[in-house]
Amino acid sequence: MKKKYTIADIATMAGVSKGTVDRVIHKRGKVSKKAHEKITKILKEIDYQPNLVARNLKKNKTYRLLVLIPDPEKDPYWAPCLEGINTASQEFQAFGVMIETFLFDPSSTRSFNARSKEVLKNKPDGVVFVPLFYKESLTFTEYCKKNSITLATFNSSINSNNARSFIGQDLHKSGRVAGGLLHMLLPGKKHLAVVHMDEIYQNAIHMQEKEKGFRDYFDGLEQKHQIITHKIPEKDIRKIRKSVRGFLETYPEVSGVFVTTSKAYLLAEALPETDTRIRLVGYDLIEKNLECLDSGHIDFLIHQNPRQQAYLGVSYLSEYFAFDKKIPDNKLLPIDIITAENYTHYLE
Amino acid sequence: MKKKYTIADIATMAGVSKGTVDRVIHKRGKVSKKAHEKITKILKEIDYQPNLVARNLKKNKTYRLLVLIPDPEKDPYWAPCLEGINTASQEFQAFGVMIETFLFDPSSTRSFNARSKEVLKNKPDGVVFVPLFYKESLTFTEYCKKNSITLATFNSSINSNNARSFIGQDLHKSGRVAGGLLHMLLPGKKHLAVVHMDEIYQNAIHMQEKEKGFRDYFDGLEQKHQIITHKIPEKDIRKIRKSVRGFLETYPEVSGVFVTTSKAYLLAEALPETDTRIRLVGYDLIEKNLECLDSGHIDFLIHQNPRQQAYLGVSYLSEYFAFDKKIPDNKLLPIDIITAENYTHYLE
DNA sequence: TTGTAGGCGTTATCAT
DNA sequence: ATGATAACGCCTACAA
């Protein structure tokens, strides 16, 4: 059972005053060599841990933390993020961290630029954001760096050392997971397809990473598989149906499809009602996908846990401000496999 | 932007002193009706949130939190719990919560009794424990209730209102999940088996719940399935092999097996090396099961996340002590589906 | 270079 | 019934 030592304790032990101990702890200098040595020795011996509560109380600062994410009204994928942000917000407001959320239109770089300017105008202590647009995000991070605003990103990473933290998923791995699942569902079959659906905004890199992982999985097998890539940029259900019909007619042997976006339900709806069902693996627990799980039109979904991503991003920065905690550089969340039977628990 | 109100602020607003405000907040009485009304009104208006940091500093108590779990040396399933406990321990020691762990032999009620007595001798403020043995655990919780020791349980629940919190999984649901997986793997096949393996200590109820869920899933299908239940209590690999051979000979049509314990690898090892592979779904990310995932002898594992269970148990009580947070009654963790491709991320 | 004297917000005690 | 005051541990400013 360890005793809790305070600065006063240490001061007594070293025969000096609290002020001197404090100077040593914070390396403020103006301490004689003798005193310095003595105090450092004691600090090590007792493994001094400062009382974070007292430190925080003294600082008595309130921090402003802003979150900049896509608007869930434009894409329901982001809805759980708001929950995660609210949870974190409630947790940390008692510790003086004030959190506000700004939403931008994920299909418009203009919207991103406008909202990010607003964010900066607020002069926050920290920002958590989704760097959906590469170029614009880089500009943003540079500005933050200059104004010493602490940054964390989630969902997408950005190749910049201006951001302190990234929270997301290993997309290549998640493609492999999808490959493994389809392989299990279709042991004999050798014809598969990767479909990139309806992605108006720029996450082409995301989809490519997933496809690479998917192909990587099958490349590692002894038995060789033929994998077709098909892009469906349309949003209109009739056009999609036409596109799907076309590619199924060209490759009638295809028995399993991996949809690299959250729009697997669109493919499911567009499939012809034949008895030889196409096996389908997609992404994200949005309402329409869940319905397809229930009806059996989608077999597996991969969950990227946007809620947790947002929650962690906000928590990391909050703990950094409130308790001087170190911010983890990278946090890769597990690649959750979802079926009709287990999705409820992931909706929280 | 909300201002942070302090008790001093409220006192000024109400034209009274801090002491009176404090008495109202803590319902200590000895306050005139007039003052009481005025202060309560203000409290509501400004939605007063006490500064938890200051409160904690003032209390300046150190809490003792003991954890009582099975020894990972006897059953590797419990190893991740220690990690979870350590993580929580590091997080909360700065807030004055001291955590210690006691291990018992999961095959011996005597061991449990002995260790739980030790725990009680320590007069802790709170205990997090795994109620593996029903009767003994009840006695334990009653004693804790009497001595006002706050309790949280994980892994197993116990039907007692003496424990404040339970963290675990919906076992019935997890059986359903297993059913869904085997059904996907074996669309045409109609002969399956539930195998209860090598459970020396009492979690028969666990296994039954899982089996019920599994059968429940198939009962809900149009196509009727035949499901055999088989028990293998032996630990010796040769006896197991004999038992497995016996039941496969009796039911040669069985093509999928659901093992309700963490011992699926034992079944995998005992299976004859025939080409028509039996599909296998089991529980828990222990080393030997992971090897079987890699080699393809096990198809899916269900992850019960013991690490997180332990972490949450300790966190809940720590936050309760340190910050007066409410303890959630029940926390059901998601039923994670694990394949050879995604297990690494779950090992942390 | 060193020591001392407040103060952060809350709570407990003591006097009024 | 109420108000003043000290204390929790840390930090800062100022005095020595």
UniProtKB/TrEMBL annotation, chains A, B:
<keyword id="KW-0805">Transcription regulation</keyword>
<dbReference type="Pfam" id="PF00356">
    <property type="entry name" value="LacI"/>
</dbReference>
<dbReference type="InterPro" id="IPR010982">
    <property type="entry name" value="Lambda_DNA-bd_dom_sf"/>
</dbReference>
<protein>
    <submittedName>
        <fullName>LacI family DNA-binding transcriptional regulator</fullName>
    </submittedName>
</protein>
<dbReference type="GO" id="GO:0000976">
    <property type="term" value="F:transcription cis-regulatory region binding"/>
</dbReference>
<dbReference type="GO" id="GO:0003700">
    <property type="term" value="F:DNA-binding transcription factor activity"/>
</dbReference>
<dbReference type="InterPro" id="IPR028082">
    <property type="entry name" value="Peripla_BP_I"/>
</dbReference>
<dbReference type="Pfam" id="PF13407">
    <property type="entry name" value="Peripla_BP_4"/>
</dbReference>
<dbReference type="InterPro" id="IPR000843">
    <property type="entry name" value="HTH_LacI"/>
</dbReference>
<keyword id="KW-0804">Transcription</keyword>
<keyword id="KW-0238">DNA-binding</keyword>
<dbReference type="InterPro" id="IPR025997">
    <property type="entry name" value="SBP_2_dom"/>
</dbReference>
<feature type="domain" description="HTH lacI-type">
    <location>
        <begin position="5"/>
        <end position="59"/>
    </location>
</feature>
